[in-house]
Amino acid sequence: MSEEAVKQETASSLFTVSVSPHIRDDETISHIMWQVNAALLPAALFAVWWFGVPALINMIVGVVFAVLGEYLWQKGMHQPITAFDGSACITGLLLAMSMSPVLPPYMVAIGSLLAVIVAKQSMGGLGFNIFNPAHIGRAALMVSWPVAMTTWTKMADASGGVDAMTSATPLNILKMQGYDALIATFGSQSDLYWNLFIGTRNGSLGETSTLLLLLGGLYLIWKGYVNWQVPVTMIATVAILTWIFGPAGLFTGDPVFHVMAGGLMLGAFFMATDMVTIPMTIKGQLIFAVGAGALTVLIRLVGGYPEGVCYSLLLMNAVTPLIDRFCKPRIFGAGGAK
Amino acid sequence: MFESFLGGIHPKDGKELAKDKPIEDMPVPQELVVPMGQHIGAPCTPTVKVGDEVKRGQLIGTSPAFMHADIHAPVSGKVVKIEPRPHSGMGSCMAVVIQNDGKDEWADGLPMERNWQSMENEEILAAIQSAGIVGMGGATFPAHIKLKPSKPVDILILNGAECEPYLTADYRLMLEEGAKIITGTQILQKLLGVKRTVIGIEDNKPEAIKAMEQAANGTNIEVAALKTKYPQGAEKMLIKVISGREVPMGGLPMDVGAVVQNVGTVAAIADAVEHGLPLTERITTVTGDAIKEPKNLRIRIGTPYQAAIDYCGGFAESPKKLIAGGPMMGMAQATTAVPVMKGSSGILALTAEKVDHGPEMNCIRCGKCVKACPMGLVPSMLSILSERQAYDACRDEYGLMNCVECGCCTFVCPAKRNIVQYIKNAKGFIRAEQMKAKAAAEAKKAQEAAKKEAEK
Known about the structure:
Mean pLDDT of chain A: 88
Strand order of the largest sheet of chain A: 1-2
Largest sheet of chain B: 6 strands, mixed
Strand content of chain B: 15-25%
Low-confidence stretches of chain B: none
Radius of gyration of chain B: 23 Å
Structural class of chain A: mainly alpha
Distance between the termini of chain B: 71 Å
Strand content of chain A: under 5%
Order of helices and strands of chain A: HHHHHHHHHHHHEEHHHH
Oligomer: heterodimer
Distance between the termini of chain A: 52 Å
Structural class of chain B: alpha/beta
Radius of gyration of chain A: 23 Å
Number of helices of chain A: 16
Shape of chain A: globular
């Protein structure tokens, strides 16, 4: 073949020429995101059964406005549309699940829009957001409508039983009236534990059922989207610290209650594991989880809020870049021959 | 069992396409294109001219440079052209084009019979050097240089891992020509005076492990079944897994007393030392879902890809990518006119279904690349910093130059980011800067010397 002919063939060739590797894993961002949504589903469905239609409405509103907000932003900014990749859906769902079932839907909608537009798209979109968008949305609502955000009224009791709940969440009762009142509300300590475990108690709509959140979390761990070390470390930190710093002196706390109360399960399995906003290495993630757990306890026991998961995770998100900087893996061959 | 290295991936291996196809001798095509650059180091200069008659095994290219390997005629015939031709690694390279005369005559004195056991080490090394043998796993490092380490070595590792998906050339070689590999290994044992010799084979090739165990029976050569995990066959990983030693950053295997050779290279060494045969053919896997009949071929150096593909029945469907080597580290080709070379472990033709990955998205910091990196790097940060042209940060804070470009990070990335490409860009920039600085320093030195001269 002459040089001319070679040039001709090269020019007419249909082969793609690009850098290796030439094959890829099938995994996509969208698939991962939908898997996380799926893992949230049991707890979300339980919320509909337990809290009734308002819970369903709030979750639908949360998802619709998050996805719509992202879509309109991307359309307006002439960006590629990725609003349907599942990540906005997670944000809307998590946001609704972390709030009172009786919060007016328009507030949920505003929270969702703030989350996807301010906390996510304006920072550059998925991957560039420093803070978990759902948490930003929740924090914004918390400062805007503090009363509505902390009003918990049980709307329906699909189980058909007697409504034995007060309007406060267990953590609220603990904060305002003390541990004995808490036990008294539920009857006995074992009743308290059982209700927290199953989810038949008051609280944000998606965080009541320890059991179902655990199931979803284990699914994500099993599929490899979540490092088990993160939720385990965060939960263990909360358990140990709440046990040590009990109401009646050192080592008198109730770690079992604290682990299952409030948003810890939801936070530990679904938010402390939000890959975008946590450190990338296991070492960094452990620091993150310990920090988030410790801050949660600090806010719960000392701070002005009964619940601390949202703010503790936001604070740790802020130091994530720093953690990443100091927790790089050891480079192969570093430190000479071994 | 052997301790594994950190990171790594498990791609679908695609080896089923060709693994059961015995090695076939491919007929020599009418025209062979022998590039003068087939190894790491200086390209060779032709020692023949247009119109010369050549015999198989005759020297046709050499170089005065230390780092080079001689090139020999793969067939008897006539030199019809010496001109730049497409090249699978360089885009284009000076090549000696030989018209096959159909006689396939060997050059004078070839092949010969030699008893390697009675040869001096110097003679053995000379035989390997004059045969132009390079690392046949794809790295193409001249073998005679690697086999004369400047530091004491005590372990010889044979690379039979063949961890690249699709490729089965080494696998077939181990099944069919284990004895030759063992002979070559024994030659190297004598040459290097090592204490321990291990052949590492991935445990997804049980037949090869069995065959090599049988062939090694009665020798002091160990056969090690290694975990199936890419890049198990990377030199540094292999040394770590087999000996527990870690080649230091920027170092060579001999820094930890090890020499690694691919099994194909060792078989070629056996031929060169026992029979005086220069490296003029090799075993190459022609495969991929776009190849009609995937095969393992004993193929002459200089055979155009098109001829090899035709011999395998042509394309089954139109390929999207034509790759020299494996899918993880091989190089995509623009044309089937590129020839088979000493380092050609595979010719791979993949359909669009296998190579279209969708658009690149933002990094979502999932950390999969960090987990997959066998070198302990943070590929996501390297890619992001490279995108921002923060090349110095890549090098100084994130160990850019340690990347071996194995492709694990890019393979696992759910955002389909071309991480290796970003890393290559950054490396290229830094190398260019280094060259510029070096040139400037040299110019300054020359200037000062001239000034001094003038002052005298």
